[in-house]
Amino acid sequence: MSLAKTVALVGMMGAGKTSIGKRLAARLDVPFADADHEIEEAAGMSVTDIFAKYGEPEFRRLERNVIARLLHDRVMVLATGGGAWMDDNTRATMKSEAFSIWLRAPVEILLGRVRKRQEHEQARPLLNNGDMRGTLEKLLLVREPVYALADMVLDSGDEPHSALVDKIVAALTAHKLCEAP
């Protein structure tokens, strides 16, 4: 398949942007990039350390620069951090350079996924306050109206990722952004 424009996945932490993004990139035979990983590479430290040492404003500045660079690099599937789409400049760049898809998931699914990561892998700096559910719910209230500005909304629940990838490919085909070779 060929992809005419970068696909940028947006949404809350735990929505499945990275796991679905990797599968979508493989299906479309294009590169995959995770914005948080790219920020860590550029900064030489983890997202958690960036937040701890420099604060959220500096992280958002790095995020804005890294996403702009990635979007001007080549066509790919890009998984963004949960707050990236909230930045007016980053959102404008993504709107002009990519096809954006909001992976929308209910709070229960988000909570289950981020709890696993919080305990076993990588801490989420915005959730390190002892009230994950409350924080997620507050973030959702603020972010959902802005996420709704994405080019496409896709509900990400408990269905297999392959089903979501099929839906995305169908939508990209309908928008004439990808086609079979």
Explained architecture:
This protein has 181 residues and is of the alpha/beta class. The protein has one domain: Rossmann fold, CATH 3.40.50.300. The chain has 8 helices and 7 strands, in the order ββαβαααβαβααβαβ. The longest helix has 18 residues, at 56-73. It is globular and about 45 Å long.
Describe how the helices and strands are arranged:
Blueprint: E1 2-3, E2 6-10, H1 17-28, E3 32-34, H2 35-43, H3 47-54, H4 56-73, E4 77-79, H5 88-97, E5 98-104, H6 107-120, H7 132-147, E6 152-155, H8 161-174, E7 178-179
Parallel strand pairs: 2-4, 2-5, 3-4, 5-6
Antiparallel strand pairs: 1-7
Strand order of the largest sheet: 3-4-2-5-6
- The secondary-structure element order is EEHEHHHEHEHHEHE
What Rg do the Cα atoms give?
Answer: 16 Å
Cα-to-Cα separation, first versus last residue: 5 Å
Summed over residues and divided by their number, the pLDDT gives a mean of 88
| Strand percent estimate | 5-15%
Question: How many β strands by DSSP?
Answer: 7
Stated plainly, the CATH topology is called Rossmann fold
How many separate helices?
Answer: 8
Poorly predicted regions are none
Question: What is the CATH superfamily label?
Answer: P-loop containing nucleotide triphosphate hydrolases
> What percentage of residues falls in helices of 4 or more residues?
55-70%
